[in-house]
């Protein structure tokens, strides 16, 4: 077994050789798990996740890739457990004041249709039911996030370009007076 180092959520090589990943992207990582093998001077060595790493395998280096000291072997995507607790605590009171739109899937949230373009909807702007208010991108595929009701976009809970997870509250829409009598409309996307 060879040691590896971690820099900025990237597992890096500490020697030269040829790297072969043994995990696919999205695999949960924990200390001691074998994530790849390194061929060095005709011998194969297991590479294990070092202590302190907690997340998911993301963007492993290709099979049979030559590496040297400091070469990035695999990125680590952090778990969202702590963020989920913070988000829930921060938005609990806000959610009750309007309709909360939630993410349908994990991905990257965009408030605008293209980089440099105006947002779909600005805070304080009136929206109609089924209007597109954002996009979630997963592997170059974009899914529209639509307003579940008519009302005023009261507050974004997630910044443009941020990673989101399924069920995460994204935005609060204050319903029109005639719709507020029916209660809060939580929508999954």
Task: Kindly list the characteristics that best describe this protein.
OB fold (Dihydrolipoamide Acetyltransferase, E2P); 18 strands; mainly beta; elongated; five-stranded mixed β-sheet; 189 residues
Folded structure, characterized:
A hairpin with a 2-residue loop joins β13 (132-138) and β14 (141-146). The protein starts with a strand and ends with a strand. The strands form 4 sheets. Strands 1-2-9-7-4 form a 5-stranded antiparallel beta sheet, with no helix packed on it. The model is unreliable at 179-189 (pLDDT under 50). The chain has 2 helices and 18 strands. With 189 residues, the protein is mainly beta. It has helices spanning 81-95, 177-180; strands at 5-7, 10-12, 17-21, 28-29, 34-40, 43-48, 55-58, 65-67, 72-78, 99-102, 107-110, 126-127, 132-138, 141-146, 151-156, 163-164, 169-175, 187-188. Helix content is 10%, strand content 42%. The longest helix has 15 residues, at 81-95.
Topology overview:
Elements: E1 5-7, E2 10-12, E3 17-21, E4 28-29, E5 34-40, E6 43-48, E7 55-58, E8 65-67, E9 72-78, H1 81-95, E10 99-102, E11 107-110, E12 126-127, E13 132-138, E14 141-146, E15 151-156, E16 163-164, E17 169-175, H2 177-180, E18 187-188
Parallel strand pairs: 10-18
Antiparallel strand pairs: 1-2, 2-9, 3-5, 3-8, 4-7, 5-6, 7-9, 10-17, 11-13, 11-16, 12-15, 13-14, 15-17
């Amino acid at each position: 077994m060879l040691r590896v180092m971690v820099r900025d959520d990237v597992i890096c090589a500490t020697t030269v050789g040829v790297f072969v990943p043994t995990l696919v992207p999205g695999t949960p990582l924990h200390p001691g798990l074998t994530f790849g093998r390194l061929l060095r001077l005709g011998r194969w060595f297991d590479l294990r996740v070092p202590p302190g790493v907690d997340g998911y395998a993301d963007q492993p280096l290709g099979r049979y890739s030559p590496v040297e000291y400091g070469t990035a072997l695999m990125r680590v995507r952090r778990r969202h457990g702590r963020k989920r607790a913070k988000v829930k605590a921060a938005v609990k009171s806000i959610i009750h004041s309007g309709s909360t739109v939630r993410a349908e899937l994990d991905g990257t949230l965009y408030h605008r249709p293209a980089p440099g373009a105006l947002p779909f909807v600005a805070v304080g702007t009136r929206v109609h039911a089924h209007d597109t208010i954002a996009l979630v991108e997963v592997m170059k595929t974009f899914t529209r996030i639509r307003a579940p009701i008519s009302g005023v976009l009261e507050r974004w809970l997630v910044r443009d370009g941020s990673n989101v997870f399924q069920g995460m509250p994204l935005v609060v829409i204050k319903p029109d007076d005639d719709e507020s009598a029916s209660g809060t409309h939580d929508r999954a996307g």
